[in-house]
Amino acid sequence: MQKRLTLLGSTGSIGESTLDVVARHPDRFSVHALTAHRNGDKLVAQCLRFQPAVAVVGDADTAARVEAQLRAAGCKTHVQHGEQALVDAASAPECDTVVAAIVGAAGLAPTLAAARTGKRILLANKEALVMSGQIFIDAVRDNGAVLLPVDSEHNAVFQCLPREAAMHGGVSKIILTASGGPFRTREPSSLVSVTPDEACKHPNWAMGRKISVDSATMMNKGLEVIEAHWLFDLPGSRIEVLIHPQSVIHSMVSYADGSVLAQLGNPDMRTPIAHALAFPDRVESGVAQLDLAQIASLTFEKPDFERFPCLALAIKALEAGGIASAALNAANEIAVEAFLARRIGFMAIADVVARVLDALPNTSAATLDHVLAADASARRLANGFVDKLTSSPASNPPVERIAH
Ligand code: NAD
Ligand code: MG
Where does the chain bind Mn(2+) (predicted)? Predict the structure, then answer.
């Protein structure tokens, strides 16, 4: 039966890769809704090509512009805007599959709505799961939703785990591989002055700017440890991070008998996307076959927690439980935004996150209200720390250098 998709965040890096795979299999997939934030022009082009019933944008002005362009081209897509429209698109009875590819906390409400309406959810938006944890997992279970990981590491682990939940007894640990990002071998003292463009220049993957900065700080791997904890129901102590600069092994599962299963492939998100879209079938994704003789060597090393304090902070937040992971995520979103806007330096990202975690008392994350309140408090605190850093240039030399 053909799957009918709502694609949240269709104009982003994951969104575009998803549409590339969808376009290769019109017999298998059709599009109910596409959503974007402000990039109306790209959304219009996507609507003309995929003819969704619904398109959602962030604000009324963009909606009016998109609507006018679509009508002029004779396209009947219904244009909506705002957060409720995202939730409606994700829970529409006309769609059975939701691709969650919005970046950051903005994706939580529609992704949770997809869980509550029993959809098949292809999860790229790790921040939504990091924030809401047990609440999200319970919503999936209680409403018969199906959660399929798109994040390449988690998709790899999913492919290497036994299909039967009862057989998980034989799993000793999972090993998340990490490229180490663009600054893996750079002299730590030089990191204070790196620019947003340098931080976004990932050696192996082309991604959105927020996740690119997260990869450079390795907060991305930290968020992925938390994501893996919820997806695979394993404690942090059984989730290992291993640096693998070639990004060919996307992650591994280690078994009690000494076996280690790995999933390999070229670093192209269309592979995990195609896997999750077609699961349990396999379909062509447009990704070239792996040429191991050409790659020749695969190397591994332990992560350096001093060079990458964000990784250590995320693991600490997972161990702490409660609202700590939601606070970590919110503080990181504010700090990364400030770094990308050249308001704070690269090393200040970890500093802001650490200060927020220290300042915010850790309390229960039992309800969505708890989580949203923690998210709001952490953002407030993080904004305060960013303001302090930007108003005292002496404590933040990189911003001063950029300003001149
Ligand atoms: P991106 O910045 O390229 O795209 C983000 C998408 O979200 C865009 O369509 C944008 O319009 C939309 N968006 C942004 N803010 C929004 C808001 N406030 N409300 C509604 N929509 C909003 O990001 P990306 O690289 O595609 O990443 C998307 C998600 O997938 C992130 O959570 C990221 O961690 C995860 N992910 C990405 C990759 C990758 O290779 N890009 C790999 C693994 C996981
Ligand atoms: Mg990943």
Answer: 151, 153, 224
- Residue 318 CB partners (closer than 8 Å, separation 6+): 225, 226, 229, 236, 324, 325
Q: Which of 90, 120, 149 finishes a domain? A: 149
**118 assigned to some structural domain:** yes
Annotated binding site: 11-14, 38-39, 125-127, 151-153, 179, 202, 208, 215, 220-221, 224
Residue 249 has pLDDT above 80, yes or no: yes
* Residue 206 pLDDT: 86
Find the 208 Cα to ligand 1 centroid distance in Å.
Answer: 6
Please check whether residue 230 lies inside any domain of the structure: no
Ligand 1 centre and the CA of 101: distance in Å? 5
Q: What is the pLDDT of residues 167-217, one digit of tens each?
A: 677 999 999 999 999 999 988 888 989 999 999 998 888 899 999 999 999
Terminal-to-terminal C-alpha distance of the chain: 60
> Is 297 a member of any domain?
no
Output the CA–CA distances (angstroms, integers) from residue 222 to 164, 286, 340, 350, in the order listed.
27, 30, 20, 12
Q: Give the Å distance between the CA of 190 and the centre of ligand 1.
A: 29
Residues ≥6 apart with Cβ < 8 Å to 170: 162, 255, 256, 257
How many other CB atoms sit within 10 Å of the CB of residue 294?
A: 6
Instruction: Please tell me the total count of domains within the chain.
Output: 2
Ligand in nearest proximity to the CA of 156 = 2
What residues have their beta carbon closer than 5 A to ion ligand 2? Answer: 151-153
What would the pLDDT profile of 289-304 be if each residue is shown by its tens digit? 999 999 999 999 999 9
Q: Domain of 18?
A: 3-149
Residue 261: inside a domain: no
Which atom of ligand 1 lies at the shortest distance from residue 205's CA? Answer: 40
> 133-177 pLDDT, tens per residue?
999 999 999 999 999 999 999 999 999 998 876 567 799 999 999
User: pTM for this structure?
Assistant: 0.96
Q: Considering 127, 149, 171, which residue would you say is the last residue of a domain?
A: 149
